[in-house]
Structures are given as structure tokens and as C-alpha cells.
Amino acid sequence: MARRKLVYEGKAKILYEGPEPGTLVQYFKDDATAFNAQKKDVIEGKGVLNNRMSEFFMAGLAAVGVPTHFIRRLNMREQLIRSVEIIPLEVVVRNVAAGSLAKRLGLTEGEALPRPIVEFYLKDDKLGDPLVAEEHILAFGWAQQQDLDDMVSLALRVNDFLSGCMMAVGIKLVDFKIEIGRIWQDDFMRLILADEISPDSCRLWDIETGKKLDKDVFREDLGSLSEAYTEVARRLGVLPANSGPAVRPHLVN
Ligand code: UDP
């Protein structure tokens, strides 16, 4: 294969120049990191599962009218996406108290929240992605008021869709993180969903047993991350039923 131009390498994904202007190839790595990359490992097959699951969610969201960067899956680890200008904010939606919210406000993990809560974190690894208020976002010009309103409504639509998908397969969507990008079309700017949606960026608990099926399995050393992700993928119907572990590539492509 001809050598492609690397555009950006992150902790779990690599972006290459795409075949046409305005496109990129998003490659899903097997690398797992937590606590701002202080904890690292390679989880064989994770990239394959996340590529599939992100495709599943992005295509489903597009079908219900949520604009996303996803164009099509290219192979086991790569998808073609639209190139966007990423807004430097992580948008977190929470339905149930967990993680940093539970810690910050002294809530019990698992406590239902009175309504979905949308938060913004500044994308800055050096600072450890701090929580920021709308005031900071507007004052420092990371986004405008209209962008913020659009981001909140987009995030809540994603929450409705994902909660439903998960509920249908016996999984509680506790919280998740999305990233949003800008694209320009004929002088108009639009916001679209970018990055990925996978168990790397969600908290997913089995409704019956409370078992964690997301990256907390890695963060908290709760067992096999690969088994947890395979379980989510299988329930969603993203992997054929009774297929072997995701590390056997011929079974998942
Ligand atoms: N999250 C993420 N990337 C980050 C930070 C958080 O995908 O850099 C996700 C995380 O997996 C969880 C949600 O966002 O589903 C809320 O995370 P939280 O603020 O509780 O932080 P954490 O406890 O994960 O550090």
C-alpha cells in the first residue's frame, strides 16, 4: 500500500490524509490509556471492536438525523471520515453519578441524577482536561453562545439515542464523552459529531448485575477489557452471535 500522510496521532487513534479533499482515514489502535496516559497497555483487538461499535453508533445517529463525521468503514481498523475543525472541548453527558462528578460533589456512585447533565472540559492534556464553565468558554473564545446551545442540544440527542440502544440490550448508559467539530459549507458553518463513540468513552453498566462493561474495567483492574467490549459488541449485534474473541480478525470483518 502506498505510504499515507500521517495527520495526527492520539492515544487510541491515528488520522491519515484521506483519498479526497475534506476526508481523513481514522485508524483505531489497540492502545488503552487511563489517568491522562499514566496507565497504559495494549489490548489486542480493542481497535477492531471500537471501529465497529463507533460505526454502529454513528450510522444509527445519522439515520435519526444527527450529523456526524462518519462516511464509511474501510476495513477492520479504519473508517473514512469528514475532516472537521475540532472544538477544543470534551462534552460529557451524565445520567447517573459516577467518576469525577461523584467525587467532586460527594455523590454516591450509581445515584440517578435528577436530569441529564451536560458538562464541558477543556481538551488540554497538560492541564488534565479541566472542567470549564460556559463563562470561560465564551470569554476565551473557544466557542460562541450559539455553538454552545447547538452543542448541548446535539449532546442530548446523542444521549437519547445511545440510552435507547443500550437499554434495549440490558445496559445502562451512565455517562459518555463526545467531541464536536466544525465544517463549512457554502459560507455556512455547521457543527457535527466527530471522534468516536465506544466503550472507551462511555460508562456502561449491565442493568441486572451492575457489572461494568467499559474502560473502567481497565482503569480499576476489574478483569478483561477485551471480554467486556466483546460483550457489548455482541449484545448490540455488531459481532455475529457465537463468534470467537475479537482478536481473531477473520471472524469480525
Ligand atoms: N471520558 C473520556 N475521555 C476523557 C475523560 C472522560 O472519554 O478524557 C469519559 C469517561 O469514560 C466517562 C465520562 O467521559 O464515560 C465522564 O468521565 P469523568 O469526568 O467521570 O472522568 P473520569 O472519572 O473518567 O476521569
Q: Give the overall average pLDDT.
A: 94
Give the distance, in angstroms, between the N- and C-terminal Cα atoms.
Answer: 19 Å
Question: Any idea what the shape is?
Answer: globular
What percentage of residues falls in helices of 4 or more residues?
A: 25-40%
CATH-scheme architecture of one domain:
2-Layer Sandwich
CATH superfamily membership of one domain, which one?
A: ATP-grasp fold, B domain
How many helical elements? 7
Which small-molecule ligands are present, each listed once? Answer: uridine-5'-diphosphate
Total beta strand runs: 14
Structure commentary:
Helices cover 30% and strands 32% of the residues. It has a domain at 85-224: 2-Layer Sandwich (D-amino Acid Aminotransferase, Chain A, domain 1), CATH 3.30.470. It is an alpha+beta fold and 253 residues long. The strands form three sheets. Strands 8, 9, 10, 11, 12, 13 and 14 form a seven-stranded antiparallel β-sheet that branches. The structure holds uridine-5'-diphosphate.
